[in-house]
Amino acid sequence: MSAVAEEKKIIAGGSFLIEERTPEEIFTPEDFTDEHRMIAETTREFVDNEVRPATEELEQHNWQLARELIRKAAELGLIGVNIPEEYGGLGLDQTSGAIVGEMMGRSASFATTLGAQSGIGLTPIIYFGTEAAKQKYLPKIAAGELITAYALTEAGSGSDAMAAKATARLSADGTHYVLNGEKMWITNGGFADVFVVFAKVDGDKFSGFIVERQPGLTSGAEEHKMGIKGSSTTALVLSDVTTPVENLLGEVGKGAKIAFNILNFGRFKLGSMCSGGMKLMIREAVRYANERHQFGRPISSFGAIKAKLAEMAIRAWVGETLVYRTLGLIENAISGAQDSEAKLRGIEEYAAECSIIKVALSESCDFVADEMVQIYGGYGYSADYPAEGAYRDSRINRIFEGTNEINRMLIPGRIMKSALSGKLALLPAAQKLMDEVLSPTLGALDEDAGVLAVEAKLAAAAKKVALMTLGTAVQKYMTALAGQQEVLMGIADIIMDAYAMESSVLRAQKLVAVQGEEQSARHLDMVSVFCHDAIDRIETHAKQTLAAMSEGDELRTLLAALRRFTKRTPINTVAARQRIADVLIKANRYAY
Amino acid sequence: MKIIVLMKQVANKDAILRINKDATWIEEGDLSYEVNESDGYALEEALRLKEKHGGEVVVCSMGPQRVKAVIKDALARGADRAIHVVGDELTRLAPLPAARALAEAIRAEQADLIMTGLQSDDNGYGQTGVIVAELLGLPHATIVIELDASDDKLRVKRELENGWYQWYEMPRPALLTIQSGISQIRYATLKGIMAAKKKEIREVAPTSDMTSGAPDQRITKIYFPQKTKQTQFLGDGDAKAGAAQLAEKLRTEARVF
Fold it and tell me: Are residues A479 and A357 part of one domain?
């Protein structure tokens, strides 16, 4: 036996742009174990039986009830799922945690409450807390006895979190810190017991602390929000609040590392919650469309409604595919990691993918909510029916955990950071592609045969377009690229669609390998429609960004390459969408 | 106390059912399945008895490999081990051969109590439990909504018709069929789900003499409820004529006067 453990192969974050993967390499929901499925079922039962019926009371700010629900969730193990066993949790894999998150997404308000409790308000303590803090807080958080919150944002510092004004000062005897300042938009702010607070030591060292509720810590009034009204959101005033030195998270001045790493977790979790929310909305919309009759037939039998239902299902399925493919990468990177540092590096590696998930899933969720309202028609505009609330609840996802604009800029930003540090061989790949583009004899793309051959080719083309636009941007702007927001956002959209296309092709090919083409027909339809629509979007974004960056002969050459890469014959997406919708209509639920 | 709970896997309540080609059963290809509702309550009662008096809860289910989902769910909720009577066609058996296969699978266990739901949500015969009792030579009580097993006897409350109830005393061992909705069924906790992985599931195959031979009964045809009532419009827009026709129909067809 070798004395040195074999080093685990970790796939580099962002490498999907330049490397090929096989279907077997990606993790999909079809890889869930029986236990994963049962965890999903327990969470679904809990949310449907206990939480969703309590929505109205929660929306009237009955926080005692919220506490009881958190305690019940804790009894089932839903809070301690990813807390290590030695601190009173279950220490299960990340997949189990993501599944709990997805099912929690069936109640937007409570998912937000629990997202603070078992996500952003908890994870900093697991990864950055001192041993004493972990012993003291984690078992009680796992048991739902202590409610947590995460306090980063201030009135003047949202996306620019490092501009926080809150201060922390070490006491003269060196035993505790004294915190002062004001925080805004704090989820669970009205009733949390323990807060993860960011403040600057000596005016400039941005640091994280665990702070208990005490007389100097005051919650503001509940914010009057557009949606997720059943979750508490308040300002927080800290006035000479004290916390012992062992409640410092990580090191003084290293708060940014905590804040940004936790946001990676948060973004991923937000994506999985959106996934659960979408599937529930689709179920409700299909049921309504089947029940509602106009002109003597159910409205689900009309093409206009079918097209909507099909597109909703496509977005949900592709979104779910992104969530679990990325989860597989994270799981592989952090399982078996010996310490917190190694685990954090594991998730940080996939910061770009986490941002993709955040943006893609929140926008798909909003799309699905919007179409749900439309399918409900007049009833969709009435607060007595579920679409209206779903529509309002969904909107926040594009704002919190980093706005979608910030996250879009992070996507190429993080990939370039990996490339410049040499971890990702992106620059040589981009150079090679540019040489190819600029050479007079640009070879045709290989003609593949087999399942989804065309779509696989389109996905490969999408990756090339991403590389071409990113490569052009780097050449043109060099280090000033970070300031070119419109270009970065366009490139981000191309990268997102490229990741989604490849992921959905691979998942469908994996399905076909297991259950055959006939059984997978409905999934193949979805992948075809998605890839053909996505390549249209990619072409538009590429034209815009390339035209913004180059002109004359150079632009003409790049556009010729773009045409070459994205050349395709349109398929009949109308018929494919009808088939996709018919599956939903027949099953009367989200059946993918 | 050793308690055996017989549980069946049935089609999901929300499933849209389609009748198979020869109209003898539903299309099973794309169905999703769940635990038969009243069997879930039987398991809950068994787990509560175990918590009160100690002992062991053994769950037994019959059918193809897909019924493992029911078994694992029961183990996750707290059952100690399981017996799986395996066979692809076993879910289609009539009550008597089904009861034979179940009775033989659990006979050697010498249970103190056998519990099951009062009927299955698919066939709804309400017979299998009662026949198992007969085959094992045990007394039984049906439609049980409350029970007390604190001494060596059993006291059970049965639901009768028209809001009447009956307390019933019987010896142990015995078989009880349990009514739905009598308690709050516990969740499978995440801890329970993980613990279930280590619990024993023993597979047994029924011998052919139990399940073959000429069936005592078989389904010849199934069909969706047929519309037997029709709306009639009387009078053709003339209220007076309509009233006269209505009065005539009330007298001759409905015979209300």
Answer: no
